Amino acid sequence: MKIVVLCGGLSPERNVSRSSGAMIAAALRELGHAVVLTDMYFGLEDYEGSLENIFDNPPEDFGTAIGETAPDMEAVRAARRMKTDSQFGDRVLELCAMADIVFMALHGQCGEDGRVQAVFDLLGIKYTGSGHLGSAIAMDKDLTKRIVAPLGILTPEWRVYELKGLDIEAACAECRLPAVVKPVDSGSSIGVSIAHTEDELRSALKAAAGESSRAVVEQYISGREVQIGILAGKPLPSIEIRPLKGFYDYKNKYQAGAAEEITPAPIPEETEQRLAQSALTVYNALGLSAISRADFILDGEGRLWFLEINTLPGMTPTSLVPQEAAVLGISYPELCQRIIDASMEKYL
């Protein structure tokens, strides 16, 4: 197959995405596919070859390293030579239209929120992962919780705040502490803070305002962080995350050795089954497909608290879904192929 691996984009998670994309491209070539790896925001600015022959003579791949902090978006914008407001870089759409399928290695607001999927749907471009509507809903933490809570999915109590012009003092007065503050539509724990005091809550709301127009202030649940992937409608083995310091933030997610990751998670079989069923309930309620990863907290009383679901989970050297798949004997290249095969079913 001719496959474009689309990554990067104008998102604080762009470096994570580029790492995922580089690994996916290498794996797909190992399987014999003709692959072009491209950054959605920059496109083919530096490619000197012919677009017609690009699958035979692809641009050079980039590396998989991820820094400890998210990139500066203003610096990213300034670095692009094509000075337009379009988030699609040089010849990106033309390139994607030439592929048999686009492997979506995008993360965050640019690529995981349904907008790119909607463009591809209108243009008749096939792509991996969930469709535009499921992607958009899953990216919105508030909307996701509103949909799944009535289905019996236990989720922490939450409030949503419009951050522009927010009366921070009024918000602090009505929020119960400790609380977790999250931008409503970001991933990789960017802009996420745990507030134990009103001063910390004020700072957290200001930090979230730098990442999104809205924030979720969520009841803090103490417990073990367990996550579970869904591949082609079937649960993978769970995984438990134990950061060596602090919580599972951007640094602990992507720096090797910053967290202990145990799969299958050391939990009772009955808990594993409840975890899988809860994740499937969310997956089906949102109309997702191909691949996802759901995040939960297992508290001291054995209750599972749903936090969020990711429609384009990471595929980096430290990512969780590849570790879960490996427990079943599914290699990284095979995982990539299974994602493609499951994604093609929505076009049958």
UniProtKB/TrEMBL annotation:
Residues 145-341 form the ATP-grasp domain. Mg(2+) 2 binds at residues 308, 310. Belongs to the D-alanine--D-alanine ligase family. Pathway: Cell wall biogenesis; peptidoglycan biosynthesis. Binds 2 magnesium or manganese ions per subunit. The gene is ddl. It comes from the Bacteria. GO terms for molecular function: ATP binding; D-alanine-D-alanine ligase activity; metal ion binding. GO terms for biological process: cell wall organization; peptidoglycan biosynthetic process; regulation of cell shape. Its cofactor is Mg(2+); Mn(2+). This is D-alanine--D-alanine ligase. GO terms for cellular component: cytoplasm. The active site is at 13, 188, 319. NCBIfam families: D_ala_D_alaTIGR, PRK01372.1. It catalyses: 2 D-alanine + ATP = D-alanyl-D-alanine + ADP + phosphate + H(+). SUPFAM superfamilies: Glutathione synthetase ATP-binding domain-like, PreATP-grasp domain. It is an enzyme of class 6 (ligase). Cell wall formation. PANTHER family: D-ALANINE--D-ALANINE LIGASE, D-ALANINE--D-ALANINE LIGASE B. It is found in: Cytoplasm. Mg(2+) 1 binds at residues 295, 308. Gene3D superfamilies: 3.40.50.20, ATP-grasp fold, A domain, ATP-grasp fold, B domain. The lineage of its organism: Bacteria, Bacillati, Bacillota, Clostridia, Eubacteriales. The keyword Zinc does not apply. Its EC number is 6.3.2.4. Keywords: ATP-binding, Cell shape, Cell wall biogenesis/degradation, Cytoplasm, Ligase, Magnesium, Manganese, Metal-binding, Nucleotide-binding, Peptidoglycan synthesis.
